[in-house]
Amino acid sequence: MKPKPYPKYVRKKSIIKTDFKHQALKNYRTWLRATIEPKGMENIVFIGMNPSAANEVYSDDTVNSLLDYAKRLSEEKTNQMNIKNVIITNIIPIYESNSSSLQNAYENVIEKIGSSEMEKIIKSNLGKVLRAIRISDYIVLCWGNPYINDVMHRKITSSILESVKHLDKEIFVFNFKKDSNVLTVKGHPKHYGYTREPEEIISVDIRPYYYLEI
Predict the structure, then answer these.
(1) Which residue would you say has higher pLDDT here, 149 or 51?
(2) Which residue among 92, 138, 171, 200 sits deepest, i.e. has the most Cβ atoms within 10 Å of its Cβ?
(3) pLDDT (tens digit, 9 = 90+) per residue, 168-196?
């Protein structure tokens, strides 16, 4: 995915990108935050699968779509949202524009630094996700079906759902107009993408063993 400029309404000095500090690795993003309305009072966090290209200098189609959507949510009077900051985190912090190539990218990192170092990266990233959840007023899950092995995907997402369940916060997922089901066949929240827009975000419940239910 090609880099894109951020929307004009985004305060450029507000954009913060953090990553996992590692000598051998640079292609990571654990956290991206941008201010869309300086007079706003609330934070919204989107938790996706993995970053594509955006950083503190330039954006990408998916990030811009999420920023636009958050701005529309805040401008819709029926939502009563007053969003100031958009935070974008992911369950896997590795940059990869093609989701189907994420497993290979993940395995390449393990070959480079070893599985124990990879676990540290995943753990550090999870800490950033949980921090974003704690400071956000609205939590939108959008990580989609696993593009890494199912065990790792379930381990990470279950940790997130377990933490959210104990924070007494409302959780949302995207609902796309032409889709018959809100969640994927495997029961995961659908990925936003940038080729289509959701009709709405809807609230979900977290059930025992940490799966979602509409």
Answers:
(1) 51
(2) 92
(3) 788 999 998 778 888 888 888 998 876 67
Q: Which strands sit side by side in the sheet containing 138-141, from one edge to the other? A: 16-18, 31-35, 83-90, 42-48, 138-141, 171-175, 200-207, 211-213
Residue 82 DSSP label: -
User: How many domains in the chain?
Assistant: 1
- Which residues, other chains included, contact 68 with Cβ-Cβ below 8 Å and sequence gap of 6+? 7
- Say if residue 153 is exposed, middle or buried (CB neighbours under 10 Å; 0-12, 13-18, 19+): buried
Percent of the chain with pLDDT over 70: 92
Q: Judging by DSSP bridges, how do beta strands 31-35 and 16-18 pair with one another?
A: antiparallel
- Domain residue limits at 74: 12-213
Across the range 22-38, mean pLDDT stands at 84
d(CA 86, CA 136) in angstroms, rounded, equals 9
CB atoms within 10 A of CB 43: 21
Closest CA to 7 of 81, 60, 47: 60
3-state secondary structure of 169: coil
User: What is the identity of the amino acid at 123?
Assistant: K
Top-confidence residue, 196 or 96: 96
Asked whether residue 204 is domain-assigned, the answer is: yes
Write down the H helix ranges in 114-149. 115-134
4, part of any domain: no
In this structure, how many other beta carbons lie within 10 angstroms of the beta carbon of residue 201?
19
Asked if residue 197 is part of any domain, the answer here is yes
